[in-house]
Amino acid sequence: MKKKMIFKAAMLVMLVILALVLEAAEFGVKAGYEGNEGYKVGVSVGFQLVKGLYFQPELLFSQRKYAYQAKDISWWEGYYYENEVTMHDKIDFIEVPLLFKYKVDIRGRIKPFVLAGGYMAFNLNKERDLYSITNEVLMDETFVPWGILFPNRYYEQSEAGLVFGTGLEYGCGKMKMTLEVRANLGLTGFQQVTELYYYGLEYYHIASWANDKIKSRSISVLVGFSF
Fold first, then answer.
1. What are φ and ψ of residue 107, in 5° steps?
2. Phi, psi (deg, nearest 5) at residue 146
3. Which of 102, 18, 96 is nearest to 57 (CA)?
4. 102 near 73, Cβ under 8 Å?
5. What is the CATH number of domain 28-226?
């Protein structure tokens, strides 16, 4: 009986502490532009550690574009032409940034802030279907070459990196609007392009080398609301 009372008392204390933490927390939603015609949307929660300093975990959905070089080939009146064409893959992610945010304490409703931390990103896309991509491009009336060679692309299932940013916060109490610019700097290689080409719907093997894995780099501009 005594153990049950102690357990109930401990649970009550934990619930009270949780309620106080949630009461003091700042919840937010945000969305905006991800570099190279991508976008980002998600939620955040901020916990004040000391005056002006917050710990802010986030859960975001983002889409980024990754460039690669394809080869547009054609023959005309006995001459061979080959041009490099910049193409893009759209990759979807779930991102989990863990950030520290410092708000500069100045008078007025507008307060600048800086943030820094790390993130993990998880790739939601399966391996690229190069056959369907080839058909989509060849059927595009704005881009109809005699033939096109597509390199094989590989993307890791996850990546890790650093986040740095700055912005402005406007409002009073818990109701605030934010405008921020942040940079994502990947620390692990994510994209790899190999010299294995598709020509029409058949393989055209040029060489067996692959470039080094490319690390992600992106700039985001986000608008958010917290309450």
1. -70, 150
2. -60, -40
3. 96
4. no
5. 2.40.160.20
Please state the domain extents for the chain. 28-226
Q: Where are the alpha helices (DSSP H) in 40-187?
A: 130-139
Strands (DSSP E) along the chain, which ranges? 26-34, 38-50, 53-76, 79-103, 110-123, 147-155, 158-172, 175-199, 202-210, 214-226
Task: State the pTM of this model.
Answer: 0.75
Alpha helices in 59-167 (DSSP H): 130-139
Q: How many residues does the chain have?
A: 227
Which residue's structure tokens are 């029409």? 200
DSSP state of 125: -
Q: Which residue has the tokens 């067996």?
A: 208
Task: Scan for tokens 């969305």, then name that residue.
Answer: 31
Q: Which two structure tokens, joined as six digits, stand for 223?
A: 């608008």
Residues 2-58 pLDDT 10s: 555 655 555 655 654 554 455 557 899 999 998 777 899 999 999 999 989 999 999
Report the C-alpha dihedral over residues 72, 91, 212, 202, rounded to 10 degrees: -40
Give first-to-last CA distance, the chain, whole Å: 43
Phi-psi region of 108 (alpha: psi -120 to 50; beta: other; left: phi over 0): left
Please tell me whether residue 4 adopts helix, strand or coil conformation. Answer: helix
Q: What are residue 20's phi and psi, to 5 degrees?
A: -65, -40
How far is Cα 227 from Cα 216, in angstroms, rounded to an integer? Answer: 32
